[in-house]
Design brief:
Helix content is 78%, strand content 0%. The longest helix has 57 residues. It is mainly α and 229 residues long. About 8% of the residues have low confidence.
Length: 229
């Protein structure tokens, strides 16, 4: 027969303070360990950001500056490989990977290789580049389309041109050009009339006041499509 507990013992067992004390006695050590780990994690994050990442970002930006200057002067080899004292885009990428400047250097490197007619390397670096700056990303897609088309990778080129055309619609000039290139590629190179007609129609409907939008009627007529007004 179970021993009966006194009223006092029952009250003590039901006391929230007693329960809290019992919980703390049981779990204080793991709570302290987890809490300490979280504190170290937060401190480590802010330490990394303030003492490692931010200084690295600044160094990367400084290194990128001279390479960009060579790029603006159209000194492509110096921009890409440096001048012996200042880093080129390739060294910025290798030394400062993970920084914003290192990422942007991939875009520049890809664009350099386009000018050097080295489309395989252009694709390599441009594929590895990404940004939230829509106009720059649009340009990267367009360059990927150019490089892929030059290598005869027509399906990939078509996809990149369409991405460029639809990524930043506010830039009507560049968007209409990319859409025209997609339509022209489908029409004249891939001989895909159905795709070409759809793209020319999209070009005329979305960008009717651009040079490419105005020309779309002529290309549609050559494909047997009239009266798009």
């Amino acid at each position: 027969m179970a021993e009966k507990k006194t009223v006092k013992e029952v009250e003590v067992e039901g006391d929230p303070l007693v329960k809290a004390k019992d919980f703390w006695t049981r779990y204080s050590k793991p709570i302290i360990v987890v809490g300490a780990a979280l504190i170290l994690l937060v401190v480590g994050f802010f330490g990394y950001k303030n003492f490692i990442q931010e200084p690295k970002e600044q160094k990367a930006a400084d290194a990128l500056f001279k390479a960009e200057e060579y790029w603006r002067k159209d000194s492509i080899n110096l921009a890409l490989n440096g001048d012996g004292q200042n880093l080129g885009f390739l060294k910025v990428i290798s030394r400062y990977g993970g920084t914003d400047a290192g990422n942007l250097a991939k875009f520049y490197a890809g664009a350099c290789y386009i000018k050097l007619d080295d489309n395989a390397n252009a694709i390599k670096y441009l594929k590895d580049f990404s940004t939230d700056a829509k106009q720059v990303q649009q340009r990267a897609y367009k360059l990927l389309g150019d490089a892929s088309a030059d290598l005869g990778k027509n399906a990939e080129a078509l996809d990149y041109y369409k991405k460029a055309a639809r990524h930043f619609k506010e830039d009507q000039q560049n968007s209409s050009e990319a859409l025209f290139l997609a339509a022209y590629l489908a029409d004249r190179v891939m001989k895909n009339q159905k795709e070409a007609i759809a793209l020319y129609k999209e070009l005329k409907e979305k960008y009717p006041n651009t040079r490419y939008g105005v020309d779309a009627d002529n290309y549609l007529a050559q494909l047997g499509v009239y009266n798009m007004n």
